[in-house]
Amino acid sequence: MSTEPGEFMSTLTAEEITELRAAGRPRRWERGVTIMTEGDTTDWVLVLTKGRVKVSSHTTSGTEVVLAVRGPGSLLGEMGAIDGSPRSATVTTLEPVEGFVVRDFIAFLQTHGRVAVLLMQFVVGRLRDSDRKRIEYGAFDTTGRVATRLIELAERYGEKTNGGVRVALPLSQDELAGWTGASREAVSKSLRALRDRGLIETGRRRVVIHDLEGLRKRAR
User: Fold this and answer.
1) Mean predicted confidence (pLDDT) in 91-100
2) What mean pLDDT do residues 56-63 have?
3) CATH fold of 141-219, please?
4) Where do the structural domains in the chain lie, given as residue ranges?
5) CA within 20 to 30 Å of 160's CA: 4, 102, 188, 205, which one?
6) What is the pLDDT at residue 68?
7) CB atoms within 10 A of CB 61
8) Average pLDDT of 18-47?
9) How many CB atoms lie within 10 A of CB 11?
10) What SS3 state is found at 49?
């Protein structure tokens, strides 16, 4: 199974992955499909094996806030499965995706102690990441936050080219705005500023980063 570095499945052994897969059943979804809905009380988890999804929530005014983009190897829905609480976020496909659904995840963890410990460490890591993003919102301007998100996408999904690092952008500008905590207009202005400095080049659903180190400096 193709797994992105840093995702939960990258921490498991081949045997553990085989046993977890055996506990689930395969599923696939087309682009734009809602897999999990904020507030639902379903208790299954999804292991993503192909494609990318966005994890989002909505404010009381209805504004979508993108919390994360997840790819192959991601474990989704684990918090609701563990404590039985309603889903804390909505998961929507950004492209056709495949994975396998595990309905009795607690039973699997009870018989796989090492996986349970790894999951605790993984959840703590996500909480730390959430704290870091909250600090970014207060410390960085919109352009700095946009640069940070582009760097994250480049490090996870980027392909080296003669002109730099090419990223097939899975998000629309509205979704990128939701991911940076800014308006669409502010994100458009930030992208234009980064283009004017020669750091990036943008196209439909893609970004080419010409100067990754320069982008990192702007993010800081």
Assistant:
1) 96
2) 83
3) Arc Repressor Mutant, subunit A (1.10.10)
4) 8-137, 141-219
5) 188
6) 87
7) 5
8) 94
9) 17
10) strand
Q: How many Å from the N-terminal Cα to the C-terminal Cα in the chain?
A: 35
Which tokens sit at 76? Answer: 């989704």
CA–CA distance, 28 with 57 (Å, rounded to integer): 23
pTM of the model: 0.77
Residue linked to tokens 């208790």: 43
Fold of 8-137: Jelly Rolls (2.60.120)
Average pLDDT score over residue span 75-94: 92
Instruction: Determine the pLDDT at residue 136.
Output: 67
CA distance 82 to 76: 12
Max CA distance (Å), the chain = 56
- Across the range 31-42, mean pLDDT stands at 93
Sign of dihedral through CA atoms 140, 133, 32, 154?
positive
Long-range own/partner contacts, residues 13-18 (CB < 8 A, 24 or more apart): 16/112, 16/114, 16/115
> If you search the block for the tokens 């943008």, which residue do you land on?
202
Q: Which of 113, 102, 106, 111 is nearest to 76 (CA)?
A: 102
| Strand-strand pairing, 75-76 and 25-29 | unpaired
Q: Is 205 helix (H, G, I), strand (E, B) or coil?
A: coil
